[in-house]
């Protein structure tokens, strides 16, 4: 099972999520296209649909766009929160992942760790 985690930036919260090339390589081939859809189940069992796209030329730089901002709003994510993706079935026609959002836990202005977000997943 391939996965990655990322601390969210303002671009990730306001526009799109940049994916790691490591995760991108674990997805099935785009078959000459620069767009693919993937599904991700959150900690509550809700399945999110995301559009994954790459640049047409140069470094692919995969990003999640469609569906991503709805996920951000639902989980009330902020800059500094963490997102974790793991690919569960890379052979499916639509790749299937597990996604987990985590909030920063601060004590005396220092990051102590991260706590899973267990908010209802009703968009």
Topology of this protein?
Elements: E1 3-7, H1 10-14, E2 17-18, H2 21-26, E3 35-41, E4 47-53, E5 63-64, H3 68-75, E6 82-89, E7 96-107, E8 110-116
Shape: globular
Work out the number of β strands.
8
User: Spans with pLDDT under 50 lasting ≥5 residues?
Assistant: none
What average pLDDT do the residues reach?
A: 79
Strand content range: 35-45%
Instruction: Supply Rg.
Output: 14 Å
The helicity comes to 10-25%
Please describe the biggest sheet, giving its number of strands, its sense, and whether it closes into a barrel: 8 strands, mixed
Count of DSSP-assigned helices: 3
Category by helix and strand content: alpha+beta
- The ordered string of helix (H) and strand (E) elements is EHEHEEEHEEE
Cα-to-Cα separation, first versus last residue: 28 Å
Keywords: DNA-binding, Nucleus, Transcription, Transcription regulation
Main location: nucleus
Domain TF-B3: 41-102
Subcellular location: Nucleus
């Amino acid at each position: 099972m391939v996965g990655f985690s990322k601390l969210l930036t303002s671009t990730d919260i306001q526009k799109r999520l940049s994916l790691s090339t490591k995760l991108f390589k674990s997805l099935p081939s785009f078959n000459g296209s620069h767009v693919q859809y993937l599904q991700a189940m959150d900690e509550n069992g809700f399945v999110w649909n995301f559009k994954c796209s790459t640049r047409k030329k140069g470094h692919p730089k995969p990003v999640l766009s469609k569906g991503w901002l709805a996920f951000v709003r639902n989980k009330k994510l902020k800059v500094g929160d963490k997102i974790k993706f793991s690919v569960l079935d890379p052979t499916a026609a639509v790749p299937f992942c597990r996604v987990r959002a985590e909030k920063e836990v601060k004590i005396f202005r220092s990051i102590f760790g991260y706590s899973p977000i267990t908010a209802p997943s009703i968009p």
